[in-house]
Amino acid sequence: MNALTKIELPGIKKFKSGKVRDIFDLGNTLLLVASDRISAFDCILPTGIPMKGHILNQLSAWWFDKTKHLIPNHVITTDVAQYPASLRAHESVIRGRSMIVKKAEVLPVECVARGYLIGSGWKEYQQDGIVSGIRLRKGYRMADKLDEPIFTPARKAETGHDENVSYEQVEKMVGAELAAQLKEKTLALYKFAADYALGKGIIIADTKFEFGLFEGKLIVLDEMLTPDSSRFWPASSYAPGQSPPSFDKQFVRDYLETLKDWDKSPPAPSLPAEVSARTRDKYLEAFKKLTGRDPEV
Predict the structure, then answer these.
(1) Cα gap 46→116, rounded to integer Å
(2) Domain with 122 in it: what CATH number?
């Protein structure tokens, strides 16, 4: 199967293109289509990862359904047979990698839950023992499990990295009542998913959620608990004190780090077939471990 990196649906209005997803405006609803694009160091690579869009879309849909008792979500349907006739004409492109969703007012906060100390959280902790305004106890090592998961929000950026902000800043951005809901739901979703995944051999070290308001009520949207929005570690090889292997694009990052003539600015270089295939296999392994099945392609 070849990677699909460019999504065009003639006759359907494209609303927005992200690093991975293309969003089409259907009037009262939106169509989200997950491509096989992959990004690293904030650059979209010219080489896609075969099956990535199917895996991300179907894993998100699976988690949305599994967590709907905790919070409503934006999914209307992922069944192309229920799509409008204008979309069914593009079935060969969108089947398995798309969903029709509610139009919501997207909140400007990336809601991050951390259960383990890694990445930017580890860097912050090393400086002064504080992560996103939260003081942690002394003695944590890299990749240690936190005593309790923490809410470490960020302000969304149109380009580049999101900016970490304190909880007090979130209150100023969306109001105290909504900020409290975001924190509560973020941690509830993370704890539920982390417990489930651990039983399947996967540690969810951290993850981010996006929320919006639909008819005045908070809902979760975009993607959920995928290897793109989370750090998935194999529980069997986890050892604190070092950076664990992961079920994501680490093969891509590792390869790009070996390139002496690329300065991590666009245009990004192409990937060798082996790196693309190994990355696909990691995404696929995570999907199978969590859902117990193969993705539909």
Answers:
(1) 32
(2) 3.30.470.20
Neighbours of 133 (CB within 10 A): 15
Domain range for residue 23?
1-103
272-286 average pLDDT score: 95
> Looking at the structure, do residues 194 and 114 belong to the same domain, yes or no?
yes
DSSP state of 82: G
Here the CATH number for the domain that contains residue 11 is 3.30.200.20
| Distance from the Cα of residue 150 to its chain's centroid | 18
C-alpha span between 160 and 97 (Å, rounded): 25
pLDDT tens-digit profile of 27-76? 999 999 999 999 998 899 999 999 999 999 999 999 999 999 999 999 99
80-97 pLDDT, tens digit each? 999 999 999 999 999 999
Q: Between 52-66 and 273-291, two packed helices, what is the crossing angle to 10 degrees?
A: 20
Residue 162 has pLDDT above 90, yes or no: no
Largest CA distance in the chain: 59
CB 72 within 8 Å of CB 294: no
Instruction: Give whole-number Cα distances, 218 to 32, 68, 142, 213, in Å.
Output: 19, 12, 34, 5
